[in-house]
Amino acid sequence: MHSPAKTKTIREERSLPAPSNFTKDHLMLTLSPDDIQAIKLSLQVAITATVIALPPGFAVAYLLALSNMRGKALLEGLVNLPLVLPPVVTGYLLLLLFGRKGWIGELLDKFDIRIIFTLRGAVIASAVVGFPLLVRSIRIGMEGIDRQYIQASRTLGAKWWDTLFTITVPLCSRAILAGMTLMFARSLGEFGATIVLAGNIPGITQTIPLAIYEYTSTPGGDSMALSLCLISILLSFAVLLIGEAANRTLARR
């Protein structure tokens, strides 16, 4: 543990204001063009990651909750692995996979598609890290469905697709919404895997967490970091409120 004197020295070296010295100027929203771009990129990454992860997330949740396949424990372990691994480790594994000499990266390179240090890399990193939250929410919702509804539908001659879209999806719609909300919020805050796979390039891959990290590492950047922190809190809170409102609307139907 740092002694008070050493802590003070660290604060002075990094130009971090002591909490007691915070003024209203530190809480004022002051955003530069790069900050606004970082906010736009964060929203773009979070929305894209949530949308592209939804179909495979739903499929995996279905296999885990409603199928009789073998190896469920193995599949569940693989899906939940990013949840327990440090995000930096996840990012490094993705870097090995999507690098030019990686299994997927070498194949994509033949089509002139680059993942690392691009916005695609940020989206993939956020999708992988948030995927377990999406799957777990949808799976819990599916496990709460009375199997007799599904069996009755199939017994009456409904095809698998009809049963899926008329019974399964409507009955777990609130769980799907909850999973999407959690994944979106997680993607907004993703840092470790993103900085390893996509880097911290302003205007290209720099999202809100990466911009905050850069400001906290820069002398005099604390007020800008606080502004982005407030924006991040507001965005996350707005997502939760919208998710809750949509959830109540679905519950009344």
Comma- or semicolon-separated keywords:
single chain; 253 residues; disordered N terminus; globular; mainly alpha
Word description of this protein:
It is a single chain. This protein has helices at 4-13, 33-66, 72-84, 87-98, 103-110, 119-143, 147-155, 160-171, 173-188, 192-197, 208-216, 222-252. Helix 3 crosses helix 6, helix 7 packs antiparallel against helix 8 (160-171) and helix 9 (173-188) packs antiparallel against helix 12 (222-252). It is 73% helix and 0% strand.
Secondary structure blueprint with pairings:
Elements: H1 4-13, H2 33-66, H3 72-84, H4 87-98, H5 103-110, H6 119-143, H7 147-155, H8 160-171, H9 173-188, H10 192-197, H11 208-216, H12 222-252
Helix pairs in contact: 2-6, 2-9, 3-6, 6-9, 7-8, 9-12, 11-12
